[in-house]
Amino acid sequence: MRSDSRSADKPPDLWLDHARYSWMNFLPRTAWGWELLRRDPRYRVAYRDALPRRPHSEQGRGPSDCDDCASWSLCVFENPDVDARSANVLWHPETRRDVLPLIAGTRHGKTVGERFSLKGLRCRVTVRREDTSNRCQILFAQDGRSLQLDIHGEVHFEDDVLVMQIVPAERLRGAQLLAKRRLADLMAHGYLRPSLYPAYKRRTRLIEVVRALDGDFAGVLQRDIALAQFGRDRVERDWHGSQNALRDHVRKTLEYGRSLMSGGYRRFLG
HSE on the CB side for 70, CA within 13 Å? Predict the structure, then answer.
């Protein structure tokens, strides 16, 4: 365990303040996938290594595309310094369970499908067209909530887009029906309403996990992590207890966090 080293990516004192993590109490399940992935030192290195080789997105956040993204279950790299409230994370459609697959309709002859427009929406909209196929990804994002569409066919955004849903596979039906409901609600209200994106039930445990990881990256002792998480009274009472329960708890929390960073984050996408 490191005692004096310090991460260049994170100021060492931020993890001490529990209030800095309070916004995470409102994150839906999918957003936790990003919060865990972005803490992985290997991902941060991969992102930085891709920067010199790739053009930058309009937002100036990083590479607009990359061949290595699929290994992280991403369509494009996103800046790991941007948290879930502001990140535009395009997950690979085969990885994120609630991506809504749609077919672009036709404007010739009889109208096909349902209409939706990108005009006047009060959320961030990211559009990514694939160069090698007639397909595009659209991401709507707002305060950790997101909705991702996978549209097949030629799409013109100057006017309303005509789309119809591809029949989902049985195992994806529930997630995609929820996504369809979210899309209809977005078109009706103009933003991603929190009522359709409930906070993840195990958020208290995950906040403890990411906070412990941040402390570990700051180079502090596990006992210091326990002090920040549980207070001095409990640490002085239990840290050297006969069962080593508190020390084991902190150690297992870090082990769990590392496993979530190293691929386990994908469970929050399914």
Answer: 3
- Are 206 and 257 a contacting pair, CB within 8 Å? no
For the stretch 201-258, pLDDT in tens is 999 999 999 999 999 999 999 999 999 999 999 999 888 877 788 999 999 999 999 9
**CA–CA separation, 5 vs 13, rounded Å?**
13
What's the rounded Cα separation, in Å, for the pair 99 and 180?
9
Report residue 264 as tokens: 């386990």
Token pair 């529930």 in the structure block, residue: 174
Give 147-173 pLDDT, tens digit per residue: 999 988 877 665 556 666 666 666 667
Closest by Cα among 243, 241, 244, 215 to 229? 215
Instruction: Say if residues 97 and 172 touch (Cβ distance below 8 Å).
Output: yes
Spatial contact of 79 and 61, defined as CB atoms under 8 Å apart: yes
What is the C-alpha radius of gyration for the chain, rounded to an integer number of angstroms? Answer: 21
Closest CA to 143 of 75, 76, 79, 194: 194
- Say which residues have a Cβ less than 8 Å from residue 131's Cβ, sequence separation at least 6: none
* 235-250 CB burial, b ≥16 within 10 A, e <16: beebbeeeeeebbebb
- What is the share, in percent, of the chain residues with pLDDT greater than 90? 60
Tell me the whole-structure pTM to 2 decimals: 0.85
Q: Nearest Cα to 136, choosing from 145, 146, 148, 120?
A: 148
CA-to-CA distance for 250 and 130, rounded, in angstroms? 44
Q: What are the tokens at 202?
A: 């195990």
